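Shape matters. Shown next:

___
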Amino acid sequence: MITKHYNYVYKVTNIIDGKFYIGKHSTNKLHDNYMGSGIKLKRAMREYGEEYFIKEILMHFDTAKEASDYEKELVTMELVRNQMCYNNCIGGSGN
């Protein structure tokens, strides 16, 4: 397994309507322009334009597993059912 230098949980927000996506990412380049892989999120980015989305890192972690565990705490079924949330499934499970 290749270890990535940066592991974090992030939130992407649509600045037009306030809808959001929470995800995790592991990378060796902190500013790699990654904005998420969710289907609803990608569809909204095509519709509104990526320039209308902002990304904030919520927390950094030493390992990808720690990031995944934290994402699982945040992205619950209750959150997924929220009309303002772009997430399709609960956190911690990957795509």
